[in-house]
Amino acid sequence: MTKQVTQGHVCIDDLSITFDVRGGSMVALAPTSLELSPGSFTALIGPSGCGKSTLMNAVAGFVPATTGRITIDGAPINGPSDKVGVIFQQYALFPWFTALDNVRFGLKRLKLSKSEELDRARAAIAEVGLEEHAQKYPQELSGGMKQRVAIARTFAFGPQVMLMDEPFGALDAQTRLVMHDLLLRIWEKHKATVLFVTHDVDEALILTDDIQLMSSGPGRIIKHYPLAEPRPRKLNRDNVHLLETRDEIIALLHQSH
Ligand code: ADP
Ligand code: MG
């Protein structure tokens, strides 16, 4: 379980992002610094519009830095990278591919032999518990199953950094709990560095090593909460620190509305 992780070190230094909008510009992210150690699991939480997706899209290389810089293992991010996997709330699966072929598509960049590619895709599908559904198309799968395919597709190519933007936001509460267990299991095995955007304070408390709380006007990180509790975690009276952290974050989120 305590596998030594040496890759996936993300350094965000004084990153700011300004968008051109009609009649001028708007600061989506004020200068922000954040370091993610290899294999860590960090939450970004904050009110809608505070720049969570913007920060994540910058790490993904989809949005350029206006000032400052981002490096992964010392290499500057100037565009999408093979080191980085991204999962969004909308599953972004190809409707014309089966679950298995969606995962295989994600592996194309590795240029494996056909049989290696198939073996790896099958293993990834099995890892997320979808062996029975490998030949189904996305429209035949539930929301939770589609997100499992997306997780399999992304982890299968072995990214050092995994960016997840409200990945479980569209799922019902029960399915979300199942997905938490699944994600923790896969993360503990692969030990990618995870940056996870969520609206759900409890989800951040259950999953992550550190909660980075953002605020808007302009978007920035205002405080962070390291969490050292062993997993699996429960939000009950045995974990007073988690409950106190929850109260404080909820109070700060209320203030910023
Ligand atoms: P969050 O994910 O925290 O809800 P976003 O990062 O999506 O917030 O957006 C932060 C701010 O930047 C919002 O005011 C949003 O409208 C604005 N914004 C995001 N993307 C763009 C863009 N491409 N062009 C102009 N404004 C944008
Ligand atoms: Mg967003």
From TrEMBL:
Q: Which GO terms describe its molecular function?
A: ATP binding; ATP hydrolysis activity
Q: Does the record carry Nucleotide-binding as a key word?
A: yes
Membrane-crossing ranges are none
Instruction: Please state every residue range assigned to the domain named ABC transporter.
Output: 10-241
Matching entries from Gene3D superfamilies are given as: P-loop containing nucleotide triphosphate hydrolases
The answer to whether keyword Iron applies is no
Could you tell me the superkingdom of the organism this chain comes from? Bacteria
What protein family is recorded? Belongs to the ABC transporter superfamily.
User: What is the protein name given in its UniProt record?
Assistant: ABC transporter ATP-binding protein
Q: Which organism is it from?
A: Vreelandella sedimenti
